[in-house]
Amino acid sequence: MAAEKSSIKIITLIAADGSVFEVEPNIVKEMKTVQSYIDELDQNTVSIPLPNVFGNDLAMIIEYCKKHASEEETKEAKEEFDFEFVKRMKSDDKLRLLQAASYLNMESFLQFMAKAIAAEIENQSVEFVRDYFQIESDFTPEEEAELRKENEWAFK
Amino acid sequence: MEIKLDSIASTRDSQRSNDAKSKIDEAEFPYFDNIPSHIIADILLQLPIKSLLTCKCVSKSWKTLISEPHFDKLYSDRARISFIIRTYNHNFMPKNFYHLECESEKFEIGRNNPVKLNPLFKLRLCFDKECLKKDNYWNRKRPFIGCKARHDKCGILNSCNGLLCLCHHNNLTPLVILNPTTGDFIRLPEVTKTPKRLNPTLVRIVGNAGFGFHPKTGEYKVIHMWLKYVKGNRVMPNGVSRPYGWVFEAMTLEIHTLGTSSWRNVEVDPQFSIKELKHATCVNGALHWIRFDNWQMSILCFNFDSEMLQLFPSPPCFENNNNNNEMSYEIIRMGQLSGFLYICCASDQNATMWIMKKYGIGESWTNVYNIDISSNRLFPSPFTLCCPLKHFEEGAIILLYLYKSHCFIYYELEKNRFKVFQIHENPPFFEVIPHIPSLISLKDVVKGDNIEVLNIHSRCTKFKLPEENEVLSLVQEFVNTRMKITTM
Fold first, then answer.
1. Which one of A51, A121, A151 has the shortest CB-CB distance to B53?
2. Which CATH number is associated with domain A2-90?
3. Which of A10, B14, B367, B442 gives a 20 to 30 Å CA spacing to B380?
4. How would you label A82-101 residue by residue, b for 16+ Cβ within 10 Å and e otherwise?
């Protein structure tokens, strides 16, 4: 079984919009959803459709995985990459990537995205957070006023 | 060979049963409904406490998520040390407590944003007549902390698991357990009174206390002590014996379990003298104090399980300081970091920090760092005091510098540089209590239903204190990159 697994050279990932990505096995190690599937196979090549991930997002995730899987890159270079990676994303991108990470079951990338999103909503108003996540308040105005009063110091 | 993969089903799709066929709907994507709550929790766990409280008001499901004891446990485990800060004023007792969250990003060298300190809560004490009426004070057995202006003073004993124990400012009688984050508090039953009719010229009674958690039973406990001193004697050169100084004679110790209605006496016979107990710290189901006795220091420990009061292994710096200098408790500080007991000693030469790596094992006291104070212009006086307060994982520390004006010093150990912050306030003195904020609910903590949980925010909101809306900020004073620090 072990020998058969290592025989897989290239994994083809097919995004929701049909775009195709060919990656090496070490890149998908982080994607537990994909990895667990590969582990059960004994073929030389695998093609995996990922109907819940867009091509653009998958490209970014692969870029991230490549950088972090690389042994040549220094810790500083990876940190620098992470910083730039978050910088070029819009809010929507972050939420989509978060969901993609959740779907692909990528533990550390999920934490990374959670951190990036937390940084955006940190010290923002309730309205901002609702808008960000597109959440409608289900509190009555009285309930909300009461709740705000209870947590008064947080609103200063 | 191509393999069709239908087995990787989306949790999102299975949740949206009415729309199962359209696998991707770009317009709707993303919606909060689509993000599982454990992932929302992952995001919220990253937030500082203030933002977390804001998020509680977003929606019912978010409020429920944040209020769950399981979430609070995960949040507290991250051990975000913050500081409760109270400015110090000789004319009146400041009632505003400020909250400073210590994420290292706030202090990093290279940034120069004033750090805003949030007024966390105000001790609205019950000396307003209307306030008393409103709270139906006359039907109550006891007011909150005090009912007269001269009684409206309180001190902070110690912090444990996100809860603070407030005490009488003078005799340290424990009065209230408070979660400053949520504003919930409970009153403690009255402690046993000191024996009356004692002649104050011959007998002196001093109170002391501590607050802690017993993990084995899941109970919170408060310890209260009365230490009794009698006038000592000194034989003069002419052979006549005269009263001189105070000699420790005995102590009584009582224990209160949160949620019960009384204190229980515990027999202790310390067999050693106690002049002063400071820096109550709860670790490993036991309360610890630094014991000062004339020129000696040691650690005293009360174990909640055995209910014994014992001496505890102390770090080598206690012995080094054992020369003829008068011991001052202000240059030493004890506390806990992620469950480890630590001691910080400071002299006019250096400041050192020690951590007890294996609980109860004296040999495991490890010197974490030494800071050379004598060679730095930042510390111009031999009376400079320096209390390390926090040790960041990233290798930076926060120090509290107590000379002329109090200020915070942020060190980056690896890079040997520091930054000084000062609180803009006149006079610039403040009290700092390391504290790990938590959303822990006092209702869950207390055992027994007859204990009333009150909230500090819902009381007397009509009455504003003069200082109430004051916002303090921590401002960078200067940066120095030539500090000499040896890391062990």
1. A151
2. 3.30.710.10
3. B367
4. beebbeebeeebbbbbbbbb
